[in-house]
Design brief:
8 strands; Mannose-Binding Protein A, Chain A; alpha+beta; 8-stranded mixed beta sheet
Length: 144
Amino acid sequence: MFKIVFLFSISFFVYTIEAACPNGMIPILNETKCLYQSPDYQDADQAILICQQIGGQNAGLAKIDNSFENGFAWQLIRNLAPFLIGVKQTANGVWTQWDGKPLTYTNWAPGEPNSIVGCAAIDSSNGQWKAVNCYFRNSYFCTV
């Protein structure tokens, strides 16, 4: 009896997360986030606007808060192109979440961030982060 109730509870929880994702977004399993993988290339500012059009005012470039989320995103883009994530460099050189909150997780590649270019992307070849220019057009991830 316990197994049946437990399985029902898990499937109900996953269904609830999926139902809460805006159209076209993918639920991140065991998380309360939805991820959108862009089919196009935009600079960071335009990507944020598109994220908000898709997921509302609270949406933005993807906040990657742990290794599971990073791995989940990387598996979607493996061997494609770098994808912008919600990490930026502030005017005083500190790297933060796009909304200005401190980073609680990082996955910088060795030697990264290597310059003052302002944004970060997941490298599709290894899942590690690298610094990229915010004004260059890249693929991107959104979260809501």
